[in-house]
Every structure is written in C-alpha cells, then in structure tokens.
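DM from R.C. (forwarded with permission)

"hey, sorry to bug you on a friday — could you get me a structure for this? deadline for the figure draft is monday and I only need the backbone to look sensible"
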Amino acid sequence: MPLLWLLLPPGVLSAQPEGAPTSRPIAKHPLPAPGRTNSTEISLRTGPEHPFGLEIGKILAPLLYPWVFRSALTAARRFLSRFLTVKGKKLYRRENGVRSLTLWRTLLGVDKTVVEDVDLDLVAGVFVASVRLTRSMRHRCGSCQKRCPRYDEGAGRRRWRGLDFGSTRVFLEADAPRVSCREHGVIVAAVPWARHQAGHTRHFDSYVAWLATQTSKTAATQLMRIAWRTVGAIITRVWADTEELHDPFAGLTRIGIDEVSFKRGRKFLTVVVDHDSGRLVWAAPGQDKATLGTFFDALGAERSALITHVSADGAAWIASVVAA
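My reply, with the result:
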C-alpha cells in the first residue's frame, strides 16, 4: 500500500472506471481562481507526499487497474512478436486458436516431435528447426522400432534435409543417440520423421521419388538441389517400404515381358508389366534366361500357375523360360 500511494495521484484510490456506478462521491481538488495559485497542487508536486512527482504517478496509475494492465501486456506481446525471434517455450503462443507448436509441426511435416527452436539464415538461405522426440518415441531401435536401453550419445547432433520453404532449404536438427538392441546390437536410435540411415525426411523422400517418375533426372536434381546418386538412394528406400505395404504380384494373370535398353544400347533391363492394371510389376538388369528366371522364382510356383496370357517380342530366351 505505501508503494501504491507513492505512485497514485490524489483521488485515484477513490476513482472508478468511467460508466461504473458510484457508491460515494469522488473527491476533487478545487480549481484555483484566475490569477491565484492552488497551494494544494504546489504541495502535491513538490512536497514529501509524492517524492517521484505528480506526473509519474499520473502515467503509472492506469496500469494498476487489472484490465488496463492485461490489455497493455497483450499489445506489447503482439508488437514484439513481429520483430523478435522467440525461443524455447515462449515459441508456443496461441494465435487465432492455433498454437505455434502445431503450426510448425504441420509446416515441417513431423509428428510425435517437439519443436524447440527455429533459426533462419537469410544470407545462406537456410532454415533450421531444432527438434526433439516425445517421450514415447525415445530410445527405440532404428531397425525394429523396439524400445531399447540407451547406449551413448552417438555422433552428437545431426541434421535431416526437409522439403524447402520456397527457395529456402529446410533442415531438422536433433540429437542422434545410440541404443543397444538385443537383435541388432548397438544402433542409432530411430526418429519418426526419417527412415533409418537416411539424411532426408520421409516427405522429402516421397516427393523426390514421385519426381523421378514424372520428370527427367536433370529436372529432379536441379529442382531439389541434390545429386542423381541421392535420387537413386531415395528411390531404393521408398520402394523397400512400398513392397512391405503392397504385394506387386497379387492378382497377376496376364503379363507382358520385354527388354529396355539404356546407356546407348550397351545395357538392358528386363521388365514385366501387368496388362490388367497397366503397371510395372518387376524389373531387373540383364537380358537372358537367368534374369527372367529370377522373376518366376520370386513369383513362386503357385502364382506362376495362375498366369493365363504372356505377351513378348518372340525372343527365344523369353519363350524358353515361359514354356518351362
């Protein structure tokens, strides 16, 4: 109470907000007559009652009302959020009913992840999001996803390439500890946003794999700013996961077999397509009986018996394998 008394101008303790009902009259200081000086005002400005001065009290007094203080604090937060980079937990403020945490997770395409900090380097054109796993996803084997005891910190923090924000490259940065798995031994712990031993996020891999089927290798590498060998590695990872989810040999009855040349006719691929769906079923490098025999070995004797029609160009090595 003494501190408030120092900051309040006279009469503010008895004052009420405009429009509020008053239960008692508000005391006011009498106005001085023309040509005279109000002795009360002089004593309030210079006397010991207000050592900080009357003007400071007038400025700070409105902030003592709770609703005025909250409004001023909200306005200050909105103003500062436009110019300052907020780190840590302060990053997760609510705007229009959406938390910044949810917004960043959606933009980065991550799940079961906590976004701790973000950093934008305008000169290098790089956006780095520091993330960590939720408690349920920590210390899991990178191969079998089973929970395992922690072994050590591994190689420290590492980065994964994510989908770009326009022309700005995006990276996820997090710890990469190792765990001790009973089946796979000491191995790097799994992360939910990327495949094991991959340097790119799952969304990045999926987008690159789709580009490889729709555009040339030059367009894919230039658009994503990666090497063609990286595209090949990504296709291998995506296809391995696709094979686990879908059976490419299911329902095969009518197939077509042919060879495709590349490297200016110096190398060949043997391909098998499904005439009913029009999709590629199988492909392997080579152009001989052994290569085509690999397909029927993978198909199995039971499914091979269900094949009713086979189309080919009449090559003897194809006919001999199909007849067998």
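R.C.: lifesaver. The two ends are 102 Å apart (CA to CA).
me: no worries. Residues 1-17, 22-29, 37-52, 82-98 have pLDDT under 50 and may be disordered.
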